[in-house]
Amino acid sequence: MLKLHGDAKNLDAGRAVHLQMITSGYHRDRYLCNLLIQMYGRCRSVHDAIAVFHTVSRKNVFTWTILIVAHTHNGLFFEAVELFREMDVHGVQSDEFTFSAILEACSNLGLAFLSLGKTIHSRIHQQGLKLTSNPTVICSTAMIDAYAQNGHIEQAAEIFERMQLQVLDPDLIAWTAMMTAYNQLGHAREALLLFRKMDLQGLEPDRFAFVAAIDACSSIPSLEQGTVLHSRLLASSVECDGVVGNALLNFYAKAGLVHESRSLFSSMKVKNVVTWSAIVAAYAQNGHHEPAVELFREMLLDGVAPNKVTFVSLLFSCSHAGLIKDLARGRKIHAEILKSTAAAGDVVVATALVNMYGRCGSVSDAKTVFDEMQHRNITSWNAMLVTYSLNQRSLEALRFFRTMLLEGEGVKPDAITFVSAADACGMMGDLSRAVEIHSRISQSWPSNQTDVVLGSALIKMYGNCRRLADAAQVLDQMPRTNVISWTSMILACEQNEDNEAAIRVYRAMQLHGHKPDPVTMVTVIKAAANLHDLKRGIEFHAQAAAFGFATSTVVGNALVTLYGTSGDLQAAENVFKELLQQSVEDVVTWNSMLSAWNQNGLPNQALGTFQRMLHHGRHPDKTTFVNILNACAGDPSKLLQGVKIHALAAACGLDSDIDVANTLLHMYSRCGNLSRARKVFHALTQKNVVSWSAMAAACAHNGDADGALQAFRGMLHGGIQPNAVTFISILSGCSHTGLMDEAVSYLYAMSSDHNLKPTVQHYACLLDLLARAGKFHRAEELATHLPNPVAWNSLLGACLVHGDAETAARAADTAAKLQPLDCAPYVSLSNAMSTGKNLKTKLNYFQ
Fold first, then answer.
1. 237 DSSP assignment
2. Most buried of 491, 669, 695, 837 (most Cβ within 10 A)?
3. How far is CA 249 from the centre of its chain?
């Protein structure tokens, strides 16, 4: 009866039997007391088990062992170890079952108790407990688990091999334990090899062995071996229950086969929280974020309470979907987490919340979650650090990094910590801080031990600080390099506008035996595009195809940009069409083609491509809107289309994005609608230098010089430093309204007040102003100090307006000498001659 009630976990019935034993006088019998302790342990009433234990006058090994097992099965591992030590003090010799139970406790208590586990293993051999019985096999299996739990795979494998050398081979449980150990410690291939060896031994796998093998296929991942295992499982007598089904769900999800995951899910009769969490994770991990959220709703309607895994998968979807509504959705999930006893306060879930808020751009929410965490680990600290870096809060990221070093509750920075800190330094371009971070990394990892992740981060950091020599030195000193480290160096060169160096590093990488990956090809193709080098671009296109990247979307997008930049629109369109044949879903592909049309002055083709994109059901992103609004800019006849696109941007929630708003401002300005431009400008809650410069340009372009100057003053009042583009707008406004003194004053202020060096475009505005005022001699004198065809062509254009053929002749002559292949000066001169003034000068020029 006691065994029956213990198996059924029926505590009330067990207590009734105990009462009958007391009234009948059997409560002193040691054998029955041992069964009582076992029953109470199985019914999760450890305090009752302890009470019975103390009534036993002569406790034997079974009495002690049963109480130890009661503690381990109820998660009281430390108390189990204390009982074991007390048992030793009382001189009771342990047997295989005692050792098995205490090894389970040691494996769950972590590294601090691993030495005790090793001592127990030695005692097993000292007591002569040879592997001749199943209990000893169980004991060794527990030892395998203990070593695996604490990361010692070599010792676990050694015990397993020793078992194989004994008279009795390991049983199925031992084989499964060893496979599980390999899986837990990232040795999935070894787990599969062990499964094959088990087959050769003639052992028929049970559901747990199948699960271990399927988990290994998920980790590799190996679609072929996983599907073979699934087929074999279906042909076997093993029932495809929840445990096996969940493992298969996870396997198909990791393999990217979401449809198969859904079919399997639908066929499962019993769906528990693990099953639901697995299917939600399957969709989330493979980028199907909306279906993941819908499945979560179905799960709640089915009455299944979500667990930690469910919430982490959902938060991942909110973090990566890229939709404007994801922050609101994330907050709703956060509210559900607070209601859940299984997830509230969990460090993994809280860290996922920090990541979600960070990726959705809400740094304040992320910091609130982080501050409220009762327990933090290195992953939590890193999540907050990455949040700052991801949201361009570099200074705060570095301050947080220092806080972590000082107040990190014993948390030691890892590679991810230093990578995030290096990224923050790079974004700031702060060399002194970069050197400090490098020094800290060197203290933790000497240069001969720096791994490729840290080395690549340092290369990127120095590249962002415009220190290519330092980046190259890091690459040279790395003990081991791979395609990532070399690509980081290529990218550093390309970002620093040393595109020739980028191509040289690319070739050196191949000489060192590293095959480029798609990211490498994208970077080197971009370098060729920056150089407008169509020949080398075609070479890299051929190499990308040879390396098997012909179907890569990211490489294809880079090629569209290359051909668009180089003016080969036929080639750009060919690549674009090939990409659409594979998939119409990638918005970057559409954006690349839109940009190609714009760069080559073909706005109608850009608008046509945009309509096709909408027809295919693609959602425009901010880059799409920037491209298509620029296609409308400059042509008043496209104002209505621009207004419609503005409405679409508002419907997508992107009209308030700073880049889109600045482009809207530019579009309305170039289409001659200054009032709409002003409305967009005033609606901006945050204005950057581009916003103010665009407003100044809008006023200047539409003849409102006072408005341009007012925008400039408002910009300074707001604490925003103007840039070179701002001054072109201001000088252009002065030029159109004849504000000579103001123009000279602003040109002087560029260098004296704002540390900006005037370019030929700025001087061209002043030239135009002088010419408009009829001061051709001063304009020509200024142009003499600017040996650039732009300046002389500007002077020539002014002469065209005012009919000064003599100055026009000299300007055309100088411009032609500076740019011999450009016929524009001669065309301008011909226009100047048609005014009929100063005929003698014209005839002399032609002679």
1. S
2. 695
3. 24
CA distances from 724 to 716, 747, 813 (A): 14, 11, 29
Whose CA is closest to 106, among 71, 80, 136?
A: 80
Please name the amino acid found at residue 34: N
pLDDT digits (tens, 9 = 90+) for 75-94: 898 888 899 889 988 888 88
Residue 128 falls in which region: left (phi positive, over 0), alpha (psi -120 to 50) or beta: left
Helices (H), 166-304: 172-184, 188-200, 207-219, 223-235, 242-254, 258-267, 273-285, 289-301
Backbone angles phi, psi at 93, to 5 degrees: -80, 130
Q: Look at residue 93 in the predicted model and tell me its pLDDT.
A: 87
Q: Interior CA angle at 97 toward 94 and 99, to 5°? A: 55
pTM of the model: 0.65
Closest CA to 170 of 196, 144, 207, 208: 144
663 exposed, middle or buried (CB, 10 Å; 0-12, 13-18, 19+)?
buried
For residue 693, the SS3 value is: helix
CA dist., res. 426 & res. 431, Å (int): 8
**Do 213 and 205 meet the contact criterion of CB atoms below 8 Å apart?**
yes
Contact (Cβ atoms closer than 8 angstroms) between residue 59 and residue 53: yes
Closest CA to 313 of 367, 272, 349, 265: 349
How does pLDDT run across 720-748, given as a tens digit for each residue? 888 888 888 888 778 777 778 888 888 88
Residue carrying the six token digits 């009462």: 19
Measure the CA–CA gap between 625 and 16, rounded to whole angstroms.
Answer: 76
Helices 658-670, 622-632: crossing angle, 10 deg rounding? 10
- 509 in Cβ contact with 520 (< 8 Å): yes
End-to-end CA distance of the chain: 126
- Which stretch, 131-140, 608-617, 710-719, has highest mean pLDDT? 608-617
> What is the 8-class DSSP label of residue 436?
H
- For residue 758, say if its preceding peptide bond is cis, omega within 30 degrees of 0: no
Residues 6+ apart with CB under 8 A from 69: 38, 41, 97, 101
Tell me what percent of the residues of the chain surpass a pLDDT of 90. Answer: 40
What is the distance between the alpha carbons of residues 289 and 295, in angstroms, rounded to a whole number? 10
377's tokens: 């680990």
Rounded to whole angstroms, the Cα distance separating 839 from 714 reads 50
- The pair of structure tokens assigned to 816 is 């032609």
DSSP string, 484-517: HHHHHHHHHHHHTT-HHHHHHHHHHHHHTTPPP-
pLDDT tens-digit series, residues 371-404: 999 889 999 999 999 999 988 899 999 999 999 9
Amino acid at 763: Y
Q: CA torsion sign, 496 to 498 to 499 to 504? A: negative
The CA dihedral of 815, 820, 823, 828, to the nearest 10 degrees, is 10
**Spatial CA neighbour of 356 closest among 370, 344, 372, 342:** 370
Measured CA to CA, the distance from residue 834 to residue 803 in angstroms comes to 9
Please give the Cα distance from 340 to 338 (Å, whole number): 6
Measured between alpha carbons, how far is 684 from 268 in angstroms, rounded to an integer? Answer: 53
* Cβ neighbours for 309, distance < 8 A, ≥ 6 positions apart: 274, 277, 278, 281
Q: How many CB atoms lie within 10 A of CB 708?
A: 26
547-554: average pLDDT: 87
The string of DSSP codes covering 75-131 is T-HHHHHHHHHHHHHTTPPP-HHHHHHHHHHHHHH-GGGHHHHHHHHHHHHHTT--S
Q: Sign (positive/negative) of CA torsion 345, 351, 352, 356?
A: positive
Q: Are 79 and 108 in contact (CB under 8 A)?
A: no
**What is the Cα–Cα distance from 63 to 348, expressed in whole angstroms?**
40
- Pick from 257-271, 534-548, 781-795: least confident: 781-795
Q: What angle do CA 322, 326, 330 make, to 5 degrees?
A: 135
